[in-house]
Amino acid sequence: MIRIKGHLQRKSWSLDIDCTLPVEGVTGIMGPSGAGKSTILRVIAGLEGHHSVSVRFNEHLWQADDAWTPTEQRRVGWVSQHPHLFPHLDVAGNLAFAQRRATPHSGNDIDADEVIALLDIGPLMDKSVAELSGGQAQRVSMARALFSSPQVLLLDEPLSGQDPGRKEQILPYLQRLKRRDWMPIVYVSHDGDDMARLADHLVYLEEGRVCQQGSVAEMFADVSGTLVRHHRAMTVVEGQVSSVNAAHHSVVLDTPVGALIWVGEAVKGTCMRVCIAARDVSISRQPLRDSSIQNCLPAMIKAITQEPAGWVWLALECNGATLLAQVSVRAFHRLELGVGDPVYALLKGLAVLAD
Ligand SMILES: Nc1ncnc2c1ncn2[C@@H]1O[C@H](COP(=O)(O)OP(=O)(O)OP(=O)(O)O)[C@@H](O)[C@H]1O
Fold first, then answer.
1. What is the pTM of this model?
2. Is 325's C-beta closer than 6 angstroms to any atom of ligand 1?
3. Cα(18)–Cα(2) distance, rounded to whole angstroms?
4. Within-domain flag for 230
5. Average of per-residue pLDDT across 28-53
6. Smallest Cα–Cα separation from 285: which of 341, 325, 329, 326?
7. Is the CB of 36 under 6 A from ligand 1?
8. Domain Mop: where (predicted)?
């Protein structure tokens, strides 16, 4: 675990923190601009120079009133929005530089060839930094961070500033990195959808304070939590491709809420993170026929939460798991919905991220 505790004072802003991040999977740090997300990464990396915040990485006390481990000895990898590569070196030279600086240690020494294959940068090796596209430079920057053999990887908004198409190209690489599980990743972003697709654990910050933390699935389903006040509620589950229909470019995903049809290409057996926005789930009293909506799941209403703004949240039991739906108050009354009612959940959109 990474334990961060203490107070950091800047002129008119302060960080007051006491939180523990797991050292497995991806921990997301979310919050509005100026909440202190990057500051936390800088504290972990030892770039803030304040002894008033203590940081413990597993059994190692990195900083406290009377302790300080310099940044280079913490062995953190850092990737930010702007890939900082050496412009006078080609891609291979940038990677070789990181490799020379890596400290050999037991545990998660990384196989260079595997990183190159995972991030698909083999064809880029001879290119100069100036020749790389934004997405390619970001992948090289990730490889460089991995080549330094870090014990934790810190990602500061690596997708920010990328256009949606390029973001979709980079996200799968992050997902692959996560699945490879070389080291824990702390991932800063203000984008809720990216977080739902990538993170396992989530910390939500506001004005330098932790407002909410927990598993990604819990936080995106907590309709009274801070996160859902700022971002859309979602059901986040893991799925696996059980069949492929190449002619229709669609696949069937086995998920805890039932079998779901998704339009996209994937190989049978692939594991996927599936995110279903509550507002993309409609309710019907009858099974749907002759509709373009492909997913119609039998469900039962488990809980109802009304909110003042004209919406009602429904927690549905689907196949033994929970699926969240958001319907208008008007529809809720027209259908005379109540707890215990059998209904059908109609799913129009799914966001999925493949392994
Ligand atoms: N070097 C600095 N000196 C003084 N104040 C700073 C410094 N860096 C950041 N701040 C202030 O500290 C606060 C937290 O900044 P931080 O960059 O951690 O926020 P953030 O949540 O990462 O924001 P964003 O999403 O906009 O990047 C902000 O009020 C910012 O203006």
1. 0.90
2. no
3. 11
4. no
5. 92
6. 341
7. yes
8. 290-355
User: What b/e string do you get for 259-294 counting C-beta neighbours within 10 Å, with b at 16 or more?
Assistant: ebbbeeebeeeeebbbbbbbbbbbbeeeeeeeeeeb
Please work out whether the CB of residue 209 comes within 6 Å of at least one atom of ligand 1.
no
13 close to ligand 1 (CB < 6 Angstrom):
yes
Which residue out of 12, 15, 16, 39 has the highest number of ligand 1 atoms within 8 Å of its CB and is therefore the one to mutate? 39
Smallest CA-to-CA distance from 332 within 345, 316, 314, 315 is with 314
Instruction: State whether 78 and 206 are in the same domain.
Output: yes
Q: What are 305's two structure tokens?
A: 């939460």
Per-residue pLDDT tens digits for 261-284? 998 888 999 999 999 999 999 999
Mean of pLDDT over the chain: 90
Do 205 and 296 reside in the same domain of the chain? no
Are 209 and 243 part of one and the same domain?
no
Ligand 1: residue whose CA is nearest its atom 26:
33
pLDDT tens string 58-90: 999 999 988 999 998 999 999 988 888 999 999
Domain boundary among 188, 222, 256: 222
> Which pLDDT belongs to residue 135?
83
Instruction: Give the CATH number for residue 279.
Output: 2.40.50.100
Residue 231 belongs to a domain: no
Number of domains in the chain: 2
Same domain membership, residue 324 and residue 244: yes
The reply to whether 89 and 165 lie within a common domain is: yes
Indicate whether 309 pLDDT > 90. Answer: no
Q: According to the model, what pLDDT value does residue 106 have?
A: 46
Ligand 1, atom nearest to 208 Cα: 14
**Structural domain of 31:** 2-222
Residues 178 and 58 in one domain: yes
Q: 40 C-alpha to center of ligand 1: Å?
A: 10
Q: What pLDDT does residue 105 have? A: 57
155, 190, 222 - which closes a domain? 222
Q: Work out the widest C-alpha separation in the chain, in whole angstroms.
A: 70
